[in-house]
Amino acid sequence: MKYRVPLSLIAVLLAVISSVAAQNAREFTDPSGQYKLTLIGDWRAVSYDDAVGRQKTEFVYRDRSEGLLKITRETLPGALTDAVRQDEENLKIYRSGFERSSSEQFGGGAMTGIRLSFFSTEGNRKMANTYYYMQDKNAMWVLRFTGRRGALDTVRNLTDQIARSFRTL
Q: Please, what's the b/e burial string for 108-141 (b: 16 or more CB within 10 A of its CB; e: otherwise)?
């Protein structure tokens, strides 16, 4: 009997927290109609025209140094694991201070794939990087999260949720 009040209080608190979190999530649809994802927390979309006049969208967490997401679609010539392995080899060559953190299967959303995380340096700044490679038939979508080490690598739950919400239209 004495545990009913605390348990009901916990249930109410969980309901309030989940409703606040749900209000903080915003759905984003690509202007060109290729994909849709849910932005969570302090992530926001920033659209601009590139030098050629094409509209581009990037996603920023608080400010660009804390978190930046760029999404690209690439042709998948073979297996996804081979493409990720090749991209990792290129990263070792072209990213200074490359230090692999982990590589693992990723799923739970509309698409499945591989999550690769690593550390690198840009000038004298230490950076955290998390790339999600998602297979869509014979194409590969890459969600490239980059940010300052100590900022981006501490919000893995948010980057995972955004990647799980990603779907093509």
A: ebebebbbbbbbbeeeeeebbbbbbbbbbeeebb
pTM for the full predicted model: 0.84
Of 155, 168, 169, 167, the closest CA to residue 40 belongs to 155
Q: Rounded to a whole number, what is the distance in angstroms from the first to the last CA of the chain?
A: 52
| Pairing relationship of beta strands 139-148 and 68-75 according to DSSP bridges | antiparallel
Measured CA distances, 163 to 9, 38, 91, 136, 147 (Å) = 33, 9, 21, 14, 16
CATH superfamily of 25-168: Mog1/PsbP, alpha/beta/alpha sandwich (3.40.1000.10)
pLDDT in the model for residue 29: 96
Domain boundaries in the chain?
25-168
pLDDT, averaged per 10 consecutive residues of the chain (169 residues), comes to: 54 46 80 94 94 93 95 94 96 96 94 97 95 95 97 93 96
